[in-house]
Specification:
Helices cover about 35% and strands about 20% of the residues. With about 100 residues, it is an alpha+beta fold. The protein has a four-stranded antiparallel sheet.
């Protein structure tokens, strides 16, 4: 699944070893985009440019970095589990 996305958007993303799950491959923002001024320093530092990884062979859960407004919608609709992973935005502030 991640490889399909990487192939389709090869100028914008790449696959490499996850910074959070060192035994898994992950989808990352391409370095030239990550270095652009459109990314805040906090996002660069917290996620290292990682967009998503999937726990293949275990529970097949997908861990995805989402924009705050998308997170609000996902959380309010009960479609995810919120993980405490180097949180840059207090999840309670997303719901208010």
């Amino acid at each position: 699944m991640l490889k399909d996305v990487a192939e389709k958007y090869k100028d914008q993303v790449e696959i490499r070893r996850s910074e959070h799950e060192l035994h898994l491959d992950a989808l990352f923002v391409a370095p030239h985009i990550l270095k652009s001024k459109s990314f805040s320093e906090a996002i660069r530092e917290a996620a290292y440019g990682e967009i998503a990884h999937i726990h293949y062979g275990f529970d097949f859960s997908a861990h995805v970095v989402s924009a705050p407004l998308d997170c609000k919608s996902i959380i309010e609709n009960g479609k995810c589990e919120v993980l405490a992973l180097k949180v840059w935005v207090d999840s309670k502030s997303l719901i208010q």
